[in-house]
Design goal:
single chain; 271 residues; alpha+beta; Jelly Rolls; Arc Repressor Mutant, subunit A; 2 domains; five-stranded antiparallel sheet; four-stranded antiparallel sheet; 23% strand
């Protein structure tokens, strides 16, 4: 079983050019990257298609010529609403390019629409990466510096204090611990009290923190995990619905059926 983690450790080993750069070409609708966070700055420039980006539980509709900026330590996920979704993606640590900016914990505007300067810089960076002519890494660095400077001067939302940044990172680390625990123990009877105790918080504070960052209550999230596991087991046709109900952690078959139909729009028998 794959362990679900919110935290994603990015390792960029190229010291000469410490940037991860790639294209996303999605040919079907649905989630194309799940909820996660990391310390790196992540940018998606949408060339084709429509989709939705969730960042810290805020929903952003994206389409052609939209730039999405995922700041350091922000929970985010992406959904394609098209069968031809194409984006350019760039990931790097800000302190590699500017310790001055990194130390100010600058938060960029999440969504930027139809900025010709940004589009020109992104296309130029990816053109250099594609052609790989002599000195292309140096040329790309120069254009990334120009992009950062332009964003700093035009699209900064706010700057966090050191204390705010530390608290945000600490809360995400706590949630990662909880998500992993749920993934490993969803078949057991998990209570909010158990989860709150796991990260040394009161039930009230924990429930507020969880819903604020994940977008739903801990119990609803646990049930969602169980329902997804049940759906996969039902497709295999190796177990009865009653067996699957108890196997994924539900202790009431009627409640399982009701929640399944509410979540998927049809009863378990229709899988």
């Amino acid at each position: 079983m794959n362990t679900l983690k919110l935290y994603e450790k990015k390792i960029i080993s190229d010291k000469e050019f410490p940037v991860q750069i790639f294209e996303n070409k999605i040919k079907k609708k649905g989630v194309y990257y799940p909820l996660h966070w990391h310390e790196h700055l992540e940018m998606h420039y949408i060339l084709k298609g429509k989709g939705i980006m969730y960042c810290n539980q805020k929903k952003f509709n994206v389409n052609e010529d939209t730039l999405v900026i995922i700041n350091s330590n922000e929970l985010h996920k992406g959904i394609s609403n098209s069968t031809n979704f194409h984006s350019l993606v760039m990931i790097f640590e800000m302190d590699v390019f500017s310790k001055e900016i990194a130390n100010h914990h600058v938060i960029f505007q999440t969504l930027i629409n139809s900025d010709k300067k940004i589009k020109s810089l992104f296309l130029s960076i990816f053109k250099e990466n594609f052609e790989k002519r002599f000195g292309y890494k140096l040329a790309m660095k120069g254009k990334i510096y120009e992009l950062i400077s332009y964003l700093i001067r035009n699209y900064v939302s706010k700057a966090l204090s050191n204390k705010q940044n530390i608290i945000r990172t600490k809360n995400l680390t706590r949630l990662n611990t909880v998500i992993q625990y749920i993934q490993e123990n969803y078949t057991s009877n998990i209570t909010v009290k158990d989860l709150a105790k796991l990260i040394h918080l009161s039930e009230y504070r924990f429930s507020h923190l969880f819903k604020e960052n994940i977008g739903q209550s801990p119990i609803n999230y646990i049930n969602e995990i169980r329902l997804k596991k049940a759906y996969n087991l039902l497709k295999q046709h190796d177990m009865s619905m009653l067996e699957i109900c108890f196997a994924v952690g539900f202790n009431d078959y009627n409640n399982f059926g009701r929640l399944f139909k509410k979540y998927y729009g049809f009863p378990p028998s229709k899988v």
